[in-house]
Each structure stands twice: as structure tokens, then as C-alpha cells.
Amino acid sequence: MYKRIFVPVDDSQSSNVALAEACKLATALGSELRLVHVVDLAQFGWGGTEFLDAAELQKSVKESGEQVLAACCDTVKASGLGVESKILESWGDKIASVLINDANQWGADLVVMGTHGWTGLMHLLMGSVAEGLLKQSDIPVLLIRNSGE
């Protein structure tokens, strides 16, 4: 069935709920898990940072992403599962595209991710990585909504 489960993570409660579901699935199915976290480095690479050290800001963003990823990996390992992880870099690309490209390269057969479930103005302003991923993916996607967010 689903032997390679791809799980995008961030530091949100929705992501944590989705990670817990992915762990349940991996345990039940004997699946491999790959956790990824996307850092958007473009915001510090293009103009407007004359008074800031762009390289230092990019390094800080990566380190923060690595901390998020490490905490999520610890959660998976505490469940008794093995896990691999990767920081993905975006240079202005749509995050959904970055995720789908990596999921395809890894050979994922299921994507499990959290969604905020925003509607209306909040959805219009913030967009939705989950929605973008659904539109682009040929891989089955399981969206986990956290109603508490």
C-alpha cells in the first residue's frame, strides 16, 4: 500500500497533528517516513537588504528550519519509527512546487500534511500550500485539518 510517506512539516499545530497521523499510518503499514521543511531564502537574496547581511539572515533561516525538522524527527523516533529528513530551499518558487518536486524525486506514494483550513479573507491573503499541492500532485495527498487553529 503506502510504503513511502512524505510529510512536510513546520512549527504549526496543524503540522504536528498531521505528523502524528503520518506516524500512525507508518506504524500500521510498515512505511518509511521522510520529513521535509521548506525555507524561503529569496526574501533575503533580492534587493532591499542593503543594511542587512543577507547571507547571515539566510543562515539564520536555515538554522531555524533545521531546529523545526530536528524536533519533528525526535517526535517520530519517540514513536519507535525510523525517519529521514531534509531541508528544502526555495528561491522564490511556490512552496507547493518545491514539495511536489522532492516528493516525486524521493518516490513518495503518499503525502500527509496539515492544513489550517482558512477560508474567506484569510485564505485570500495567505494562500494555501496545501491547495497548491493538491492541484499539482499526481501522488495521493492526505490533508489533516486541525480545527483548533
Could you explain the architecture of this structure?
With about 150 residues, the chain is of the alpha/beta class. It has a single domain (about 5-145), classed as HUPs (Rossmann fold, 3-Layer(aba) Sandwich), CATH 3.40.50. It has 5 helices and 5 strands. Strands 3-2-1-4-5 form a 5-stranded parallel β-sheet, with helices on both faces. It starts with a strand and ends with a strand.
What's the rounded overall pLDDT mean? 85
Please count the beta strands (DSSP E, at least 2 residues each): 5
Number of helices: 5
Note the gap between the termini: 31 Å
CATH homologous superfamily classification? HUPs
- Determine the structural class based on helices, strands and strand pairing: alpha/beta
* Biggest beta sheet summary: 5 strands, parallel
> What is the CATH first-level class name?
Alpha Beta
Total domain units: 1
**Poorly predicted spans:** 121-126
CATH topology: Rossmann fold
CATH 2nd-level architecture: 3-Layer(aba) Sandwich
Strand content: 15-25%
**What is the succession of H and E elements?**
EHEHEHEHHE
Q: What strand line-up does the widest sheet have?
A: 3-2-1-4-5
